[in-house]
Amino acid sequence: SEPYVSVIGGSNIDLQGSADNSLLLNDSNPGEISMSAGGVGRNIAENLSRISIATKMFSYVGADALGEFLIEKTQSANVDTSFIKKHSTLPTSQYLSVLDDNNDMLVSISDMRIINEMSIEDIKSCSNTLNQSSVIVIDTNIPTKVIQYITDEYSHIPLFLDPVSIAKTSKIINIIGKFHTVKPNRLEAELITGIKITDKQSMLKAAQNIFNRGCKQIFITLGKEGVFYYD
């Protein structure tokens, strides 16, 4: 059978609202609301599949219409969704954001309770599939104990990490060296290394710090400025 990548992480619905005119706070603003399939892990799985890499997604959705929408969208990108579990009581994760007049996020609320339900037992039940993966990608939306279990149990497979956010990066600071490839942004790289990144030199120092802990490839994303790569 063909080689494949396993992605373990969040799947959610992105709801985005933008007003037709300048936002009036404490009031109802006419505008547009769009809904799309999101989630860091799910987006990675879809993108891998779109560049013709066989991909399996491990995640949680609710037993609801939004969960069906997510599974359908992910399947239509040819991702294997048979390992996406449905939770009987919690709703599918949603990320709700309101854009300001410059189309930047003004405020957002994320309901990601469901991904906290992912357990070590869930991972154990898929061990045959995970063991045969060419690469395992994880995002830090999943619980800390699950991340630690994966890094211990599947150290023989290249593990790729997306730290997701500053808040969630704290989950992996002490085990960063267990990952083959990591993709922090500048702020996440600063948090992981304790090095303030102000120029090329300090960025190189931060990348070397992560490399020296055991990572083989480091991609530091820099927004409009592109990506800094080190191996």
Automatic annotation (TrEMBL):
<keyword id="KW-0808">Transferase</keyword>
<dbReference type="GO" id="GO:0016798">
    <property type="term" value="F:hydrolase activity, acting on glycosyl bonds"/>
</dbReference>
<keyword id="KW-0479">Metal-binding</keyword>
<dbReference type="GO" id="GO:0016301">
    <property type="term" value="F:kinase activity"/>
</dbReference>
<feature type="domain" description="Carbohydrate kinase PfkB">
    <location>
        <begin position="4"/>
        <end position="230"/>
    </location>
</feature>
<dbReference type="InterPro" id="IPR011611">
    <property type="entry name" value="PfkB_dom"/>
</dbReference>
<dbReference type="InterPro" id="IPR002173">
    <property type="entry name" value="Carboh/pur_kinase_PfkB_CS"/>
</dbReference>
<dbReference type="Pfam" id="PF00294">
    <property type="entry name" value="PfkB"/>
</dbReference>
<dbReference type="InterPro" id="IPR029056">
    <property type="entry name" value="Ribokinase-like"/>
</dbReference>
<protein>
    <recommendedName>
        <fullName>Carbohydrate kinase PfkB domain-containing protein</fullName>
    </recommendedName>
</protein>
<dbReference type="GO" id="GO:0004730">
    <property type="term" value="F:pseudouridylate synthase activity"/>
</dbReference>
<dbReference type="GO" id="GO:0005737">
    <property type="term" value="C:cytoplasm"/>
</dbReference>
<keyword id="KW-0418">Kinase</keyword>
<dbReference type="GO" id="GO:0046872">
    <property type="term" value="F:metal ion binding"/>
</dbReference>
